[in-house]
Amino acid sequence: MKPLGALFQVKKLEKAIFAGGCFWCLESSFEALPGVLEVKPGYIGGNKESPTYEEVCAGMTGHREAVQIVFDPSKIAYRQLLDTFWKQIDPTDPDGQFVDRGPQYRTAIFYFNDEQKHLAESSKERLEQSGTFKKPIVTDIIHASTFYPAEDYHHRYHKKCPLRYKEYRVHSGRDQYLRSIWREEKNVNPRKTLSKGITEPEKEQLKKKLSPLQYQVTQQNGTEKPFHNEYWNNKKEGIYVDIVSGEPLFSSRDKFDSGTGWPSFTRPLNPENIIESEDKSLPITRTEVRSKHADSHLGHVFLDGPAPRGRRYCINSAALRFIPRRNLVQEGYGEYEEIFDS
C-alpha cells in the first residue's frame, strides 16, 4: 500500500478539519464514510505548540479538540462532510458540547482554502434558514492553523476501548439529542413533539412524504404483499425504526425466517415503543401492533414463534426503515451498537 503522502499526489486528496466536542465521537462518525481515507483526532486553534491532552482539557491553551480528515474528493464532496458534521453536533451551544464543557469543546469548521470557506459559510447559512434550530448557530468558521495530532491512545478510541467509548457515548446525551433534532432522516415534517422527542406529522404532509403503500399501511391499517416487500429476506445487521417517527422498534438480532413472506421478529427492540391491542376487523380476533409515539400500524403479533418466547411479530416492511449497523452512530442511534457485541 502506498503511503498517504504519495496518494496525495496521485489522487489529489484533500483535508478537512472539524471541531465538535469530544473527538472520539467525531472520529467514529466520519471514519465509516466512503471516500474518507483517514480521520485523526487532535488539537487546533490555540497558542501552544504540541499541547498535551491534559493541557487542552484544562482549557488554558486556546486549542479545541478536533479531527483532521483526509478524503478523496472524487468519491465524497466537501459539502457532504459538512452535512455529516452538522448532524453530529449541537451548533447552538457556545460553551461546549453535551456533557463536555469549556472552550476546548466548542464547535468550529477550520477551512484550508476559499472554496472550503465559501461552502462552510453557505452550509451554515442554509442551516440557519432551515428553522431546524430555535437558537442561533454559534459554530465558528476559522482559517486552519497548525493541527497537532493527539496522543496515540486517542486514535480510534472507539475500537481500542469499545466498552468505555459506548458508555461515554450513551451517557453524554449526544445521540439522544441528535435523534430528537434530525427529523428529516425520517422523511417527514414534524407537527408536534411527543414524549422522548418523537413527532406526529400532519396527515397531509405524510401523504406527500410517504409512498402510497407506506401511507396505506401505517395510516390506514393496510397489509403489503408477502415475499414482495423490502425487508422480508433482509439478513443484514442493524435496527428497524418507524418510517414515520424514527422510533426504534426491532433489531436484526431478533429477526427470523418465519416462512410467511413478511419480516418476523421474536420481540421488540424497545417494548416501550410498541402498543398491542385487540383487532376484530376479521372473523378471528388478532393482536395488532402499533408504534407508541407515531401511532403507525405495524402489523400483528402471533403466538406461533420460536422458543423460548414463542411470539412472532409479523411486521410490514412499508412501516419500517432499516438502519445498517455501520450507520447507527452517524444517524444518531449509537446507543444500540452494543447489542451486536453481546
Description:
With 342 residues, this protein is an alpha+beta fold. The chain has two domains: 4-181, Peptide Methionine Sulfoxide Reductase, Chain A (2-Layer Sandwich); 189-340, Metal Binding Protein, Guanine Nucleotide Exchange Factor, Chain A (Beta Complex), CATH 2.170.150.20. It contains ten helices and 19 strands. Strands 7-6-1-3-2-8 form a six-stranded mixed sheet. α4 crosses α5 (114-130). The model is unreliable at 184-201 (pLDDT under 50).
Question: What is this structure, in a nutshell?
Answer:
The protein has helices at 4-11, 23-31, 53-57, 78-86, 114-130, 157-160, 162-172, 174-181, 203-209, 212-220; strands at residues 14-19, 36-44, 64-71, 96-97, 100-101, 108-111, 140-143, 147-149, 192-193, 199-200, 238-242, 248-251, 255-256, 264-265, 274-279, 286-291, 297-302, 312-315, 320-324. By secondary structure, the chain is α+β, with helices and mostly antiparallel strands.
Keywords, please?
24% strand, alpha+beta, 342 residues, Metal Binding Protein, Guanine Nucleotide Exchange Factor, Chain A, 6-stranded mixed beta sheet, 19 strands, 6-stranded antiparallel beta sheet, Peptide Methionine Sulfoxide Reductase, Chain A
